[in-house]
């Protein structure tokens, strides 16, 4: 620190690097040729609630290697208007609190928070080394954001319970990017991948890592079964008499629950369905039975029961279940792998729940990059400490 000023907006402190010869902001080498000078400011941590800015006449240098570049300063990343300490503080808050708290406390816009997090995460990842080392059991899933119009693909390490990779998109091509980053050697070490039964990701996995066991988790099978019941219900509503219509319409949620979780009024609804609509009740039983098969502990029992179920569903005369049976038969091996390995996506689903909350909070970031940085910040096993420093040591 060399001097300070009080201004309307707060306190401005003049600082300069401890080194004399400027360094290139890109490569860090000492450079003697100075191109020009310009006064700049960096937002630092508040001082007793007062906004504090650092001021320095920054030089642009002529680096023999990189060309004309802004010189390096020890307190901030090139191109950022915030000090390292301030950026760490923002990331610390963003990891732990909600949007209003971060923007209110730091007095910055949410989009600025997004840009800061991107820089913090990049620095973290550079320091931390490769997160993709040692992966054996992974999960792949998609998250929708911005009102479901856009997607990010997320790869989770089951063992560490962390998001290890994420990218915009949800195609086979998107996931291929992950396997390319992983490289053939580490691809060969993957033992199992939990995944959605829908096509795009499956192809990317079999292409890159054919030895890995694909596991179709209970949650995705459950979702398909619920969809099938709902399809039958809608069809029955369409064909029902006017007085039955209203009653059938209101059974949707009751039919999705486990029987032992039903409230009395929902139980009444299921009983009504049992009495009034055999087809819909059959759909309900098919769904419940399938989920019960997946909860079996012994693989040979589960395997036999699944075959019985497949035979029943194929003969059920309910088109959505005939279709579901076809899908399940095709992926039988991966579904039974769930029973065998118990690669329980409870953990991943928990992580997914968290990721979904973050996705909603990140609404307003306007780009996938900031959302992905936020996902890493909150679900990537990253530790950010709040900044506690001597006020005159700003780096
Ligand atoms: Zn350089």
Protein architecture, described:
The protein is an alpha/beta fold. Among the domains are: 3-81, no CATH class; 218-341. The chain has 15 helices and ten strands. The strands form two sheets. Strands 1, 2, 3, 4 and 5 form a five-stranded mixed β-sheet that branches. Strand 9, helix 5 and strand 10 (213-216) form a beta-alpha-beta unit. The longest helix has 22 residues, at 218-239. 36% of the residues are buried. The site of zinc ion has 8 residues, from loops.
The ordered string of helix (H) and strand (E) elements is EEEEEHHHEEEHEHEHHHHHHHHHH
* Structural class assignment: alpha/beta
The fraction of residues in strands falls at: 15-25%
Bound molecules: zinc ion
> Sheet with the most strands?
5 strands, mixed
Question: Care to give the gist of this entry?
Answer:
The chain is an alpha/beta fold.
């Amino acid at each position: 620190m060399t001097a300070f000023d009080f201004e309307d907006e707060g306190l401005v402190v003049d600082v300069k690097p401890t080194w004399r010869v400027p360094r290139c902001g890109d490569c860090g080498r000492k450079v003697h040729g100075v191109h020009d000078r310009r006064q700049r400011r960096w937002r630092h941590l508040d001082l007793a609630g007062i906004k504090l800015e650092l001021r320095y006449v920054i030089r642009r240098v002529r680096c023999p290697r990189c060309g004309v570049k802004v010189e390096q300063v020890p307190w901030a990343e090139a191109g950022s208007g915030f000090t390292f300490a301030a950026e760490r503080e923002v990331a610390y808050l963003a990891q732990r609190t909600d949007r209003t708290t971060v923007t209110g406390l730091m007095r910055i816009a949410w989009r600025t928070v997004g840009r800061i997090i991107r820089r913090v995460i990049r620095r973290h990842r550079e320091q931390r080394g490769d997160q993709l080392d040692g992966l054996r059991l992974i999960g792949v899933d998609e998250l929708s954001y911005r009102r479901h119009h856009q997607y990010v693909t997320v790869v989770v390490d089951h063992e560490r319970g962390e998001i290890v990779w994420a990218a915009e998109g949800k195609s086979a091509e998107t996931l291929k990017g992950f396997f390319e980053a992983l490289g053939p050697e580490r691809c060969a070490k993957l033992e199992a991948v939990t995944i959605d039964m829908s096509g795009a990701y499956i192809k990317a996995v079999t292409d890159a890592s054919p030895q890995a066991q694909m596991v179709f988790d209970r949650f995705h099978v459950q979702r398909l079964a619920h969809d099938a019941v709902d399809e039958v219900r809608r069809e029955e509503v369409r064909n029902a008499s006017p007085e039955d219509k209203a009653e059938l319409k209101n059974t949707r949620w009751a039919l999705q629950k486990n029987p032992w979780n039903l409230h009395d009024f929902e139980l009444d609804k299921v009983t009504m369905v049992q009495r009034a609509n055999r087809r819909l009740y059959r759909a309900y039983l098919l769904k419940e039975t399938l989920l019960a098969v997946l909860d079996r502990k012994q693989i040979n029992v589960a395997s036999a029961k699944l075959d019985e179920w497949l035979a029943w569903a194929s003969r059920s005369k309910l088109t959505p279940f005939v279709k579901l049976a076809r899908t399940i038969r095709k992926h039988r091996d991966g579904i039974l792998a769930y029973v065998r390995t118990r690669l329980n996506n409870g953990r991943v689903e928990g992580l997914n729940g968290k990721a979904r909350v973050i996705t909603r909070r990140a609404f307003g970031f306007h780009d996938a990059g900031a959302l992905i940085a936020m996902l890493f910040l909150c679900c990537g096993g990253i530790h950010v400490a709040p900044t506690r420093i001597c006020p005159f040591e700003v780096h």
